[in-house]
Amino acid sequence: MEFTNKAIGVDFGGTSIKFGVVLGKQIIAEAPPILPTDYPKPNDLIQAIADTCITLIAQHPEIKAIGCGVPGFVNTPTGLIHNLTNVPGWVDIPLRDLLSQKTGLPCIVENDANAMGVAEWKLGAGAGYQHLICLTLGTGVGGAIIVNDQLVRGAQFVAGELGQTSIHYNGRVGAYNNPGALEDYVGNNEFAADAQRAYFEAGIEKTLDACTPAALDAAATAGCEIAIACWDDFARKLACTLANCCWLLNPEAFVIGGGISKAGETLFQPLRKHVAAQLSAPFRDHLQIVPAKFSNEAGIIGCAVLALEATETEQLQS
Amino acid sequence: MEFTNKAIGVDFGGTSIKFGVVLGKQIIAEAPPILPTDYPKPNDLIQAIADTCITLIAQHPEIKAIGCGVPGFVNTPTGLIHNLTNVPGWVDIPLRDLLSQKTGLPCIVENDANAMGVAEWKLGAGAGYQHLICLTLGTGVGGAIIVNDQLVRGAQFVAGELGQTSIHYNGRVGAYNNPGALEDYVGNNEFAADAQRAYFEAGIEKTLDACTPAALDAAATAGCEIAIACWDDFARKLACTLANCCWLLNPEAFVIGGGISKAGETLFQPLRKHVAAQLSAPFRDHLQIVPAKFSNEAGIIGCAVLALEATETEQLQS
Question: Is the Cβ–Cβ distance between A257 and A295 less than 8 Å?
């Protein structure tokens, strides 16, 4: 993939909005302003986003497009945000058209997990794969699915919600009344609570703050058998969803990012073991399970890539 | 879709091989010979398949292609059968090329569950959908997945194995050491055994033969609360996998066939209820869960459609 034009990537998080100017695989202007999301009205925040973009465009005239990743339910072809998970008041807002009108540049709007997946698929650890699944492990579990060399958005553009898939038909009840939702087992907070319980059952009292993924990684690396068992249990549950994705979609690879993935082989070694143990040979033998290349910048890069691609294929209204 | 040419569809089952001559949506020669699969050598069976095709071609000169659906692991682009689940000796057999050489017609080879799904997608209850999942409920659970208006075969052409996906990360251990495999809960035999147990716990002794899907459908329709509860439990478990497919792929519809689906609303009513109960609105509101149009003939029709399409797009070697 050749890049000559620049694009702005906008990573719209639950509490703040980060900007980046992207050329090729790199963010070349790393520290533009970060905006909070708690403006009284969506229109004021949209104006602030547009103003930030206009400032960046003045500094980088090679910017040709804007891509905005949002945490919620968005209709990518129309650029309409239906609602945002953790940002009140953002209901049925035509963000793409508003940003485009205010900045004079073509824009795209994409779900943030899809944008992160696109970054890995086009430029990161998933480059070259035609059948790929990307996960982000954090407070929740996000995902993006690539099949036949295409991003899977689904009928209402809400595909890729790996964290809501069930690993137990009669299990813990999730945010949408869904039993056994993966993220209710392997989310940051649930992992800490399960680890605290495992220590307690072994006669050791720990605070939740002493059961962060980083703390459990350090403990496991130092040989703590309780911590090792916690990671094994975590990996076994996550492996259930990964194996399900394999049986359904037979991907070439999983790319796994997010805070918990920073544990590296503490996570990946038992995860590969558990996934391999429950698949037949054709599914298992060529499968890769690898860490993400990008970190916090994945969303910015993915949005910028999508914006530039859309510009180049003239799929944009501008 | 216009059909002017005919094709032979070959449905290669575990114990017998059925043939049909297909024009458009219909099998026009319904009762050609049925071959057993227990020939001493694969080559003898392949010759018998070819001879049957040659006889049909002599009767129907408009036949332009042959499609063969097989129960196992097949590389569709190369036409090589890696192995068949219940037919010994079929390892690494280039069935497509052998049949093509022997009959003089272009051939395709496809996984049988994919072929059944294609019949529903192109001509049946799934016609018009771009994001579709087809299931067959019987002794096992087969599936086919359509995303972005394309059949999903995956990296090694083994995608769509809905029956092997897990509904319980620590559940019943499946054929591939996979815990909680759906078909170990909703396969014909498991459904009967679970129903027998439910009756027994209520003080009623039944043979397994009295717990077939047809018997349980009749009992539920007559108002038997135990049978109704069995169907509700069945639907709840199947709903777990359907909901997982929704979160991952956001399909427009599920098309469900196979013996158990003949229970009709006895199955579909609780199934729709359980699926809807564990999905958020964007996933749920437009989702269709419908019975398959085709029955035993789905494999024959799907193979014939794939063969004709491949001929028309000149993707075949001949």
Answer: yes
Q: Does the domain spanning A6-116+297-312 belong to CATH 3.40.50.720?
A: no
Q: Looking at residue A3, what is its pLDDT?
A: 58
- Which residues from chain A sit within 8 angstroms of residue B249, using beta carbons? 145, 152, 154, 159, 248
pLDDT tens digit sequence for A262-313? 999 999 999 999 999 999 998 999 999 999 999 989 999 999 999 999 887 7
Cα A68 from Cα A38, distance rounded (Å): 17
Domains A6-116+297-312 and A128-291 share a fold: yes
Give, as one character, the DSSP assignment of residue B181.
Answer: B
User: Pairing between strand B6-12 and B132-137?
Assistant: unpaired
Nearest by CB to residue A169, choosing from B130, B145, B237, is B237
DSSP secondary structure code for residue B39 in this structure: -
At the second CATH level, the architecture of B128-291 is 2-Layer Sandwich (3.30)
CB of A105 closer than 8 Å to CB of A49: no
Of A171, A239, A244, the CB nearest to B165: A244
pLDDT band at B316 (very low <50, low <70, confident <90, very high): very low
Residues of B in contact with A176 (CB under 8 A): 278-280
Q: What is the pLDDT of residue B28?
A: 80
Band of pLDDT at residue B318, cut at 50, 70 and 90: very low
Residue-level pLDDT at A313: 72
> What residue spans define the domains of chain B?
6-116+297-312, 128-291
Task: Tell me which chain B residue has its CA closest to the CA of residue A282.
Answer: B156
Q: In what order do the strands lie in the sheet with A91-93?
A: A72-75, A80-84, A91-93
Please provide the average confidence, as pLDDT, over all residues in chain A: 93
Alpha-carbon distance A5 to nearest alpha carbon in chain B (angstroms): 29
Distance between CA atoms of A144 and A126, rounded to whole angstroms? 11
User: Contacts for B197-202 with beta carbons within 8 Å, 24 or more apart?
Assistant: B198/B226, B198/B229, B198/B230, B198/B233, B199/B226, B202/B226
Helix (H, G, I), strand (E, B) or coil at A130: coil
Query: A287, A256 in Cβ contact below 8 A?
Result: no
Local confidence band at A245 (pLDDT 50, 70, 90 cut-offs): very high
Mean pLDDT over B78-83 rounds to 93
Residue of A134, A234, A244 to mutate, testing the B interface (most B Cβ within 10 Å of its Cβ) = A244
**Cα three-residue angle A101-A102-A103, rounded to 5 degrees:** 95
Q: What is the dihedral of CA B73, B137, A158, B128, to 10 degrees?
A: 90
Percent of chain B with pLDDT over 70: 97
| Nearby residues of B155 by Cβ (< 8 Å), 6 or more positions away | A130, A131, A250, A251, A252, A286
Residue B199 backbone dihedrals phi, psi, to 5 degrees: -65, -45
**Cα→Cα distances B237→A169, A245, B178, B213, B232, Å:** 6, 18, 16, 16, 9
Residue spans of beta strands (DSSP E) within B190-236:
none
The string of pLDDT tens digits covering residues B130-168 is: 999 999 999 999 999 999 999 999 999 999 999 999 999
* Closest A-chain CA to B185: A169
Q: List, in sequence order, every residue forming a beta bridge with A257; answer none if it has no partner.
A: A136
- Residue A86's pLDDT band (cuts 50, 70, 90): confident
Q: Under 8 Å CB-to-CB from A139, ≥6 apart: which residues?
A: A187, A188, A189
Q: Which residue has the higher pLDDT, A122 or B315?
A: A122
